[in-house]
Amino acid sequence: MSDGGSYRVRLATAADIPAMLEFQTPPGSEPQATADRLAHDFAVRVPADQTFLVLAEVAEGVVAVARASWIERPFSGPDRIPTGWYLQGVRVAEGWRRLGIGRALTKRRLEWLDKRTDTVLYTTTAANRPSIALHRSFGFEQVATGVDAPAAPPRADRLLFRCQRRGFERPPPPPEILS
Questions:
Q1: Are the C-beta atoms of 90 and 131 separated by less than 8 Å?
Q2: Could you report the per-residue pLDDT of 45-81, keeping only the tens digit for each?
Q3: Is 123 exposed, middle or buried (0-12, 13-18, 19+ CB in 10 A)?
Q4: What is the CB neighbour count within 10 angstroms for residue 104?
Q5: Contact status, residue 54 vs residue 10, Cβ threshold 8 Å
Q6: How far apart (Å, rounded) are the C-alpha atoms in residues 167 and 27?
Q7: Does domain 8-167 have CATH number 3.40.630.30?
Q8: 77-93 in b/e burial notation, b at 16+ Cβ within 10 A?
Q9: Residue 168 φ then ψ, to 5°
């Protein structure tokens, strides 16, 4: 439990997988399946610049995990999500919530994404008011309802949010295009 002490935000590594399982294993799922997915992320998606995993830790260990990922999905109807960069799964341990950790993890992921895109997406359910308030404070606006999510089936109360980032600077075109 938190005493309001300090925490450190840092990049997650494959060595953090055991500590991340508590936060990344969906209810009713096998931890080994989650460990395998995380191992794949660190072996394939992180080096390919498709996933960014960040965590918060205190002296006692990891207390929060969050990710940003490139999600490629066809946008073929009201129950689909567009391809793009998504903020996914801020998970903060009980006792460490409402201390700014989720905000710090979101800020760090947005800073990373600012080098990659000018549009960031995120999904949540309508009942997740704390998450909606957090993301709105960073400029996210609701753009759709009844959408699916990368790891979940469509739900009537699932919302899609978008944030247009101003910090993104597109690299200059190759020289052959300029001439």
A1: yes
A2: 888 889 999 999 999 899 999 999 998 875 455 556 7
A3: buried
A4: 17
A5: yes
A6: 36
A7: yes
A8: eeeebbebbbbbbbbbb
A9: -70, 130
* In contact, 143 and 131? CB cutoff 8 Å: no
Handedness of CA 91, 93, 94, 99 (dihedral sign): negative
Per residue in 7-21, pLDDT (tens digit) is: 999 999 999 988 888
pTM of the full structure: 0.83
Domain boundaries, the chain: 8-167
How many other C-beta atoms lie within 10 A of the C-beta of residue 157?
11
Single-letter amino acid, residue 20: M
Scan for tokens 């929060």, then name that residue.
Answer: 64
Angstrom distance (rounded) from CA 22 to CA 93:
9
CB contact at 8 A, 57 and 51: no
